[in-house]
Write a structure and sequence with these properties.
Oligomer: single chain
Helix content: 55-70%
Strand content: 5-15%
Number of domains: 4
Largest sheet: 7 strands, mixed
Distance between the termini: 32 Å
Length: 559
């Protein structure tokens, strides 16, 4: 391996510069903290049109949802609306996913109901404290913990969310009342009360579903516009395209107009939300005490009352938002920055508490609407000290309570261990061909760091260059790592360069073969890989398939 080898303790986040002068005030660092600066200079009228349609669609969707979620949280309906708008402005500047929308969700509303006793003051204070915890995690760069959310977990969450959210709409579709929120009870009570279906609600719901389906099919089959088309045809095409793209907003508006028409005539066949408090919420600091009929509850007592909610709510909020962001980033081929997402959601909750919001997070349902509507935008001494941190923390806290000291020291030790798994050291060789060798095993939390290292050092170079992943120390991989490697090979292919593998051990090769990955090429030695990637004659790669794997490895694989 060439002499220009460096140790990479951690892959740098998106947008970080390779130059030594890339400090906290450098343009790259500022852009990383304000992602809006990355896409705003290239903003176009086409993006504006698509973003306007998507924003309108989500806006019309969030109004009835927010009113319903406030009911789930046990709060007056206006608190759902108060919780729905702050995230839009904060995420515009700080978010790294073009699809995610922040606001009230079913899961978060259930948690708020459980931990705040249907008391608005508790809910607002919980939003403030949750935001502070999330901001602290972002500033401490604890986003690596979220890399431990593997692909099966994300797919499981999104699948369960799809089923839960979808089935949860049946009671509204049929106009059923008093259906519990817990999923299994909800299924049971929905089927038990299906005979109580309200005809008006069922008809309106089915008509809306049919309209959405027809408009979606029209969108999928609209022919492309050609310059030679007459102006009238192009105008008609534009109207059809706008209507089919804004289908969610149109259908919500249609349903609201129908309900209003019946209201005016004095006949109401639908279950309506009812009246809510008018006007914008007052801007004020969160309540750090609350007066009840039994006296004043202090801040300390409120915190004690909320108890585990101060840990559960911010963590579940982060997991839900990151899972949604990762899911849509994978579908739409872009990357998110977990630390930046922490800052965005944390600041949203802190600022939202000033306008009487309860805790919010990334919404799966509204993010899906956003995506479907075509949205386009949103050192050495320190390491040495972290070996000492568990000892110091345990020592100091043991003066307070021995059990707290042991627990805190253990937790910090676990965090350090997890960080080393998620951000393994990597040996990097710079040259015409980039060579990157993980210094330890490759586990699924480290996939994002590995991909980031290749993207910033090879694909974002000018021009992009070929690279080698030296896998001598990688003795096993899992499903998430396979998916990450497949995406990485695809990234290189789209940039017109190659990624080669060297030192594949038999267990790793066996998994790659069973996954049937396309385009994965590997070599017996690093010299062969570099020679091939430099386009020198005389060397050919092995493809990961039964037909091209060397015979001696086939024997080992079948052993």
């Amino acid at each position: 391996m060439p002499s220009s080898v460096k140790a990479l303790g951690q892959a740098r986040p998106p947008g970080a510069s390779m130059a030594p002068q890339a400090h906290c005030c450098s343009p790259a660092a500022v852009q990383r903290r304000l992602p809006i600066l990355a896409w705003l200079p290239d903003y176009s009228l086409q993006w504006l049109k698509m973003d306007f349609i998507a924003g309108l669609s989500v806006g019309l969707t969030v109004i009835p949802q927010a009113l319903a979620y406030a009911e789930v949280a046990g709060l007056p309906p206006q608190y759902g609306l108060y919780s729905a708008f702050t995230g839009c402005f904060v995420y515009f500047f700080l978010g790294t996913s073009r699809d995610v929308t922040l606001g009230p969700t079913a899961i978060m509303s259930l948690l708020v109901s459980f931990y705040t006793f249907h008391e608005p003051a508790y809910a607002v204070l919980l939003a403030f404290l949750s935001g502070c915890i999330q901001l602290a995690m972002g500033f401490l760069r604890l986003g690596f913990l979220l890399d431990f959310i593997s692909c099966p977990i994300i797919k499981g969450f999104t699948s369960a969310a799809t089923i839960t959210i979808g089935f949860g709409q049946i009671k509204n579709l049929l106009g059923l009342q008093d259906i519990p929120r817990q999923f299994l009870l909800q299924v049971y009570q929905t089927f038990r009360k299906v005979g109580e279906t309200r005809v008006g609600d069922a008809v309106l719901g089915l008509v809306c579903m049919v309209l959405l389906l027809v408009l979606k099919l029209m969108r999928d089959h609209v022919p492309p516009v050609h310059p030679e088309m007459p102006p009238g045809v192009r105008l008609s095409h534009g109207l059809v395209w706008t209507a089919t793209t804004a289908r969610n907003a149109l259908v919500v508006s249609f349903a609201a107009l129908v309900a209003y028409s019946f209201e005016v005539t004095g006949y109401q066949p639908f279950v309506l939300t009812g009246k809510t408090t008018e006007g914008l919420p007052p801007v004020r600091i969160p309540p750090f005490s609350v007066t009840t009929a039994n006296g004043t509850v202090s801040f300390t007592e409120m915190v004690q009352d909320m108890g585990a909610g101060l840990a559960v709510v911010p963590l579940v909020g982060l997991l839900e938002s990151i899972a949604v962001a990762k899911s849509f980033a994978s579908q739409n081929n872009y990357r998110i920055d977990a630390n930046q997402e922490l800052l965005a959601i944390g600041l949203t909750n802190v600022l939202g508490s000033l306008v009487s919001s309860y805790p919010v997070t990334g919404s799966f349902g509204r993010t899906a609407v956003n995506a479907q509507s075509g949205v386009c935008t949103p050192a050495g001494g320190l390491v040495t000290g972290l070996d000492l941190l568990p000892l110091c923390l345990t020592f100091l806290l043991c003066f307070w309570e021995v059990q707290y000291g042991i627990l805190a020291g253990t937790l910090v030790s676990v965090l350090i261990l997890l960080h080393s798994v998620a951000r393994p050291k990597m040996q990097v060789s710079e040259g015409p061909v980039l060579v990157l060798q993980p210094a330890s095993g490759l586990h699924f939390p480290a996939v994002e760091a590995l991909r980031e290292a290749f993207l910033t050092r090879a694909l974002e170079a000018s021009p992009p260059r070929c690279a080698v992943l030296e896998c001598t120390h990688v003795c096993s991989i899992d499903y998430t790592v396979v998916l990450g490697l497949e995406e990485l090979v695809g990234d290189f292919h789209r940039h017109g360069v190659s990624l080669a593998f060297v030192g594949l051990q038999v267990p790793v090769l066996r998994v790659l073969l069973s996954a049937d990955l396309k385009g994965v090429q590997y070599f017996s030695t690093l010299e062969e890989a570099e020679k091939y990637l430099r386009q020198e004659p005389g060397t050919q790669p092995y493809n990961v398939s039964e037909d091209s794997v060397p015979e001696h490895k086939i024997a080992l694989l079948k052993a």
